[in-house]
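Loading example: each entry is read as two labelled lines plus one structure line.
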Amino acid sequence: MPKELNWTALIVFIVLFGLVTILGFFAARWRRGDLNLIHEWGLGGRRFGTVVTWFLLGGDLYTAYTFIAVPALVYGSGAIGFFAVPYTIIAYPFVFIVMPRLWSVCHKHGYVTASDFVRGRYGSSGLALAVAFTGILATMPYIALQLVGIQVVLAAMGIQGDIPLVIAFVILAAYTYFSGLRAPAMIALVKDAIIYITIIVAIIVVPIYISNHMGNGSGILDGYATIFAKVPSAKLLLAPKVYTVFGTLALGSALALFMYPHSVTGVLAANSGRVIKRNSALLPAYSFLLGLIALLGFMALVLAVKPVKPYGAQFAVPGLINLVFPSWFAGFAFAAIAIGALVPASIMSIAAANLFTRNIYKEYFRRNASDREESSVAKFVSLIVKAGALLFVIGLPLQQSINFQLLGGVWILQTLPAIVFGLYTRWFHRWALLIGWLVGMGLGTYMAYLQKSPITPHFASSTYSLHLFGQVIPGYAAFYAIIVNIAVTVVLSLIFNAVGLARGADKTVTADYEAADVIAEAVAIN
Amino acid sequence: MANDTAHDGTSSTGEGRSNGKAFWYLLLIIPFIATLWVPFYAGKDPELAGAIPFFYWYQFLWIIISSLLTAFVYFMTK
């Protein structure tokens, strides 16, 4: 880690950071709405079209932490890290089919969260609480890891201590409070522009650098040939025994991605279901970018970038940037990563705040909360959520945050049956879904608990080795847990439906799910 | 449960009015098969430009194919 401050990088960084701060506050006036209403503050008034949604969801899903962690995994463990590519390929056909239905029913009934939908569909506040609770639980460590992303790039510029991180977070908290979802939507435009520039420059300049230093100096193609030739064969290709890990990680993560509250928030902020369909075809541009970023892990490996304590392999990309680029461009790239952390952190805190306000506060404490009260509670909770994440990062070792985030993925997938199955059928019984969820949560957590590594006795990974008919099949714990969850849900639904256990009232009708082509006007909230 | 039966019947039909077009949605299964059948593309050969292993360029190629396929289904079901 650099011992001295890199002033040039820092100045470029501060200028860009200052620019997005101004944008964040200015966003309150953008497509003006009454920010004292939760669907205006927390969903941007459901009026984002195809382009803004592309930037918003792109900034939301492809987080700074992804940009640090995926190449770090490739750098440390090799080909397995590329599971992120099939993961972000298959997420979109799934989104194309499923999410317009969610948008449609939520638009129709003024639902702000997935939990609102579950409440309306199953007439079950218990199931809705389970979905809201899981969402908040999975989101907290995810926000914490965005902070880690900021911390890593600050460290790469030679900045020590927690104060700069606190300052960055106070700024973030303030404009999220004032502008709501409009702030990250507007900042995402800038963030994505500088991220794309950074990556495109990196995947051209770094291979040329490698060609000049380690290859025959003939340029970019020789650079790539050198990279792939120098990666140790154990890291270059998957060992056959991890094929199932690779596949289940990709599938499990893809199905989990849009169960996260921040993804749902991005989807519901669109002005029609069509916008979501179009974005299913357009968002893979970011997946391509992510694949290129994953390659940076190999570039860092080939250039022998050293892991740095306490960040370890997480330092691969920042270290690579420091090694290859002049200070001014390093500052630009680090700003891209740090701003890339602000957008998802902001949306995640808004999503968690929406869940708390709608599905816990209003449901259990203030049944008759007015629209204005809802909005002010949500704004306040967004501050609490971020403060909690900050304490998480400052108070706990980095490894703990990473472990929790891995668990978050396992947990959030367990809400899929309640949300996604509910979009198609009322056959599943609310109590069966709730028990299935509980079993999935318990089992997934237990499978992750059993994983140890030299660094940590528990929760070392989210891969579990299933012993089945004398075979050992290693796979993503979330995937095994969701299969058991679904099996329990099906069996118990059969039983509960047969014995006629009360099913709860369904406030929705078939047509509510099929109005994805309607363009949202000013939406009344229920 | 009896009072829910009518409701179940209507809400479980899913595709409803777009029956003729629902067929196109089946195309979206292809990316799942192409990317989740890992042994198919886990190898080194054929290398692209004599340098990039199959495992890598195959995945990048499928990002593009999957995106085009999704766009195609969008236009066919619009």
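Chain A is about 70% helix and 0% strand.
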